[in-house]
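Predict the holo structure. Ligand: iron/sulfur cluster.
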Amino acid sequence: MQPTDKLNRPLRDLRISVTDRCNFRCVYCMPKEIFGSDFAFLPHDKLLSFEEITRLTKLFVANGVEKIRITGGEPLLRKGVEMLIKQLSEINGIKDLAMTTNASLLRPRAERLKQAGLHRVSVSLDSLDDNVFMTMNDVRFPVSKVLDGIKAAEDVGLTPIKINAVIKRGMNDDSILKMAEHFRNTGHILRFIEFMDVGNSNGWRLEDTVTTEEIFKTIHSEWPLLPIDQNYEGEVANRFRYKDKAGEIGIIASISQPFCHGCTRSRLSAEGKLYTCLFSGLGHDFRDKLRRRQSDHEIDMFIKHIWGNRKDRYSELRTEETNFQTKVEMSHIGG
Ligand code: SAM
Ligand code: SF4
Ligand code: SF4
């Protein structure tokens, strides 16, 4: 039997982080002061192997998972990740196999990723202005290379492509309109994400979050928008289409309009810990079970037990105080 949690939510999504490392230092995710040259990233033997991930994924699919997202850190830094994608693409029951990437390494890999069975990519890009983008990624990575990665993904059919932009007040809020203009009529779906209080290292303050309403008004005043229905129950983005038929955008309102009631997502960290909420402090250790050679039945029971007892609804309970709870870092579990 497939489990539902204490709030009657089924398990549908598994986000798999394949590395905790990244070649960017986005200020809202891996600030340099904390993730500096002396930061202790996981050694290779502590990461789940591709075989371990595939075995676990099969058991999660048997428990209801239909959507898989490969993430990180930067997932394309994990050597041979195409091999993992090939293994996952052969599992019956997966309807959606996607990857979230900063696209810095996408151009030379796009073809192989597609051939391995990846369905589509979501690319993170916070501004089209080099000065703003370089300030945000903090490694002086230029916009043009990300756009080139997006083009490579488009050319090989890793579509529909979603472009994710985190908006931080005073940093890139004046990039919203230019981003919208650029991606209108491209078929790519631009999604704005409210800056969130994930982890404990990004110095989050409520006043730095640009709300969905503000983002909506900014675009709507230039190009009128109409709301559209969710694609599926539990979808995170508020969806809108341009009245002039130039395409669709999404706004992810995790701060201003929490959506925990429909949350069917679980997240597996690179070292094999399962988090049932983006804001959890505690992960459930699957690597230990795998390496102690527990049977599929025992691991299946562990999944059912964890999900069956889940009560998470952090965003609905968020207060100034909850920000100081110990929470897993975004770069550890991948958004
Ligand atoms: N490195 C890949 C990338 O950036 O696409 C994948 C991992 S990254 C942690 C996944 C997503 O989390 C990105 O779209 C990023 O913008 C988002 N993210 C990271 N920190 C965030 C924060 N504090 N608030 C909102 N979104 C955040
Ligand atoms: Fe790296 Fe992605 Fe985090 Fe930026 S958001 S630091 S690209 S993991
Ligand atoms: Fe899901 Fe936790 Fe986010 Fe709520 S706060 S939507 S339970 S991940």
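The first strand starts at residue 13 and ends at 17. The chain has a mean pLDDT of 94.
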